[in-house]
Amino acid sequence: MKMEDMSLSGLDNTKLEALAQDIYSDLVEDACLGLCFEVHRAVKQGYFFLDDTDQESMKDFEIVDQPGVDIFGQVYNQWKNKECVCPNCNRSIAASRFAPHLEKCLGMGRNSSRIANRRIASSNNMNNKSESDQEDNDDVNDNDWSYGSEKKAKKRKSDKNPNSPRRSKSVKHKNALLGPKLCCRSGSSMRAVER
Amino acid sequence: FYWHCVQQHARFIERFGLKELLRAKLTECGWRDQLKAHCKDVIKEKGLEHVTVEDLVVEITPKGRVLVPDSVKKELLQRIRAFLAQHAT
Q: What is the pLDDT of residues A70-126, one digit of tens each?
């Protein structure tokens, strides 16, 4: 549809203005009718009054906008230092340490399965070794969550490097001497044996 | 000839998005909410079960026309005139 169809050039200003007013009235009437139809449908479909609540409830659930408090009015870090009782071992644990403790305590989670696997692997490898060596390993494992674990984690990482293809040949040659069983995990237990 | 224009202007309106513009402005300025509140009164008066579209149209439309804020009316008319002027040559 082209605007040329309208050929408005023949119209004088008063007629143009009347046309503009007509268009405007049409638009407003359209908006009103639209609203009527919407409302009528909402009434007949039963959802017109759906979002009405009494004043009291509105006040109860109003969004809170104060410092130090979330939008429900709760203090958001009040549970940080609470103590929880572990349902498994019945120990009282700090909230922020609770998740890792549960992981170990229940024997689930990534780390505890790793530890378990390593224990199995090392106990298989060292079946004919002395008792003291095994205890050594256990102690090292128990330190997983404390500072000691970070040291050990670093150790393990440096173990990885000798095995990576980027390393020089001499390092690889050294690993070959230790035996084919050497890998990241058993690497540390092998080291314990070496000592 | 005049009626020819009037018929054409329905398509004119659609094409230039004037409908949407007006509705958006009316919602923005609270006109819709005002009228909705008025609708509630009508419904309560006529009864939820029995109110018809006619009831609403009769009660709402006159009020709706009056309630349009002057600023909105001005802007709409301006736009309409501008479009008409553009295409009057």
A: 777 777 776 666 787 888 888 888 888 888 888 888 887 787 788 888 888 888 877
Give helix B18-28 / helix A13-45 axis angle, nearest 10°: 60
Q: Indicate the pTM of the whole model.
A: 0.47
Which residues in chain B touch residue A30, judged by CB atoms under 8 angstroms apart? 19
Asked whether the beta carbons of B55 and B46 are under 8 A apart, the reply is yes
- C-alpha dihedral (A132, A133, A136, A140), degrees to nearest 10: -160
pLDDT tens-digit map of A169-181:
554 444 444 444 4
The pLDDT value recorded for residue A153 is 47
Backbone angles phi, psi at A93, to 5 degrees: -120, 145
Contact B57 A9 (CB under 8 A): no
Q: Which of B3, B5, B14, B60 to mutate to test the interface with A (most CBs of A within 10 A)?
A: B5
CA distance A46 to B69: 31
Are the C-beta atoms of A28 and B65 separated by less than 8 Å?
yes
Query: Which residue in chain A has the smallest CA separation from B10?
Result: A23
How many contacts (CB atoms, under 8 Å) link A and B?
Answer: 107
Is residue B61 within 8 Å of residue A29, measured between CB atoms? yes
CB contact under 8 A, A5 and B8: yes
B39 neighbourhood in chain A, CB within 8 Å: 35-36, 39
